[in-house]
Design a protein that fits this description.
By secondary structure, this protein is α+β, with helices and mostly antiparallel strands. It is built from 13 helices and eleven strands. The chain folds into three domains: 85 residues, Winged helix-like DNA-binding domain superfamily/Winged helix DNA-binding domain (Arc Repressor Mutant, subunit A, Orthogonal Bundle); 152 residues, GAF domain (Beta-Lactamase, 2-Layer Sandwich); 92 residues, 2-Layer Sandwich (Enolase-like, domain 1). Strands 7-3-10-9-8 form a five-stranded antiparallel β-sheet, with helices on both faces. The protein has a four-stranded mixed β-sheet with strand order 4-5-6-11. A two-stranded antiparallel ribbon has the order 1-2. The longest helix has 17 residues. The radius of gyration is 26 Å and the shape is elongated.
Length: 356
């Protein structure tokens, strides 16, 4: 349970019905919802006065608010949270939409970069919000092999191959003229000790596992020790695919030019986007969506929005898909899209090269 729900007042059937209708009406119209509007559009079985009184109670309890005195009501953050947790229908895409999603992604399964880009574009088009796909975190993968490739002196390329066919390559300068036989020996020893371990475990234990290799004349053991925080960690650059900035900015919440500039600055910062989408509360089940609303978001500069995320698994590595939009988003559709996308990206393996 989120902090915003700890002190909430339980709602009876009438209050739940009215809150559900107000949230849905506001999502559809982006305008405050009045009691007469609800009674005209929906068979609530209540008079406009009774609806108005119920809406007044919901406002007093923190579920609705007045944007200004003479207007109807609109949901608060708590109102959205109760709607998402308790009142909305089971999110589901149509059979046609599911088939379309699968067909579009299946043809790209041999090209990870294009797969992630197309996935973010699809999320955007179908939600009319910002769609984001984060490629898997390489640090959660299991090392298959480490290779060191001599380049033109004084450079070497270190290649980290992860079991799900993710490959990370980094080029370093070295002051040692490395002999082939010595390099082959030290690489063989490193693989004997490190292959089969998760990269984050290697980062933590590398020094202990290689402490006795102080006779390494190539300098590779010490170079890797010095650079382990980079070699066996996740790169921020190149992990983010997003689509739909223009779709997002067409929402009425972004009529203000300063708000537009803020969103663009936020989206263009890859490191921020990674932290934003990976740092939210995640569902316990892989592929299940989690929703963060307003102040529940762990980045203060994004607390005017809502984020829907789900994790997917590529081999042993874990990535994230998600949608960002205003709090007035179609949560049912966003959750259905994110969960279906995560399900389609779940794969035993796929090839991707990450260069730093």
């Amino acid at each position: 349970m989120t902090a915003s729900r700890e002190l909430e007042r339980p709602l009876g059937p009438r209050e739940q019905m009215i809150l559900r209708l107000v949230v849905r009406s506001f999502i559809d119209t982006a305008g405050p919802v009045g009691s007469r509007t609800l009674t005209r559009r929906h068979p609530v079985g209540l008079s406009a006065a009774s609806v108005r009184n119920t809406m007044g109670d919901l406002e007093a309890w923190g579920y609705l608010r007045h944007p200004y005195t003479s207007a109807g009501r609109m949901p608060t953050q708590l109102g959205y949270r109760v709607f998402v947790d308790d009142l909305m229908d089971l999110p589901e895409l149509s059979i046609v939409e599911k088939r379309l999603l699968k067909a579009k992604l299946d043809r790209l399964m041999d090209n990870a970069d294009e797969l992630f880009k197309e996935g973010s574009r699809i999320l955007s088009r179908m939600s009319r919000l910002l769609g984001v796909v984060l490629s898997p975190r390489i640090s959660t993968g299991i090392l298959e092999r480490l290779d060191v490739v001599p380049l033109a002196v004084p450079r070497v390329m270190i290649v980290i191959s992860v079991r799900n066919r993710l490959v990370q390559t980094i080029i370093y300068e070295t002051r040692v003229d490395i002999r082939r036989y010595a390099l082959d020996r030290v690489v063989q020893l490193l693989n004997e000790r490190l292959a089969g371990l998760r990269l984050d475990e290697i980062r933590r234990t590398y020094e202990d596992r290689t402490r006795d290799l102080d006779d390494d004349e190539t300098g590779i053991v010490q170079l890797i020790l010095k650079e382990k925080a980079v070699l066996f960690s996740d790169s921020v650059t190149g992990r983010v695919s997003h689509g739909g900035t223009q779709q997002l900015l067409r929402q009425p919440e972004f009529d203000d030019s300063e708000e537009v500039r803020h969103v663009i600055r936020m989206i263009e910062d890859e490191g921020f986007v990674v932290q934003l989408f990976e740092g939210q509360r995640q569902a316990d089940v892989m592929g299940q969506a989690a929703v963060s609303i307003g102040s529940e978001i762990n980045q203060s500069t994004a607390q005017a929005y809502s984020i829907v995320t789900a994790r997917y698994q590529l081999g042993e590595s874990v990535g994230t898909v998600g949608i960002l939009g205003p709090m007035r988003m179609d949560y049912e559709r966003a959750i259905a899209l994110v969960e279906n996308m995560a399900s389609l990206l779940n794969r035993p393996a796929i090839s991707q090269t990450i260069q730093r």
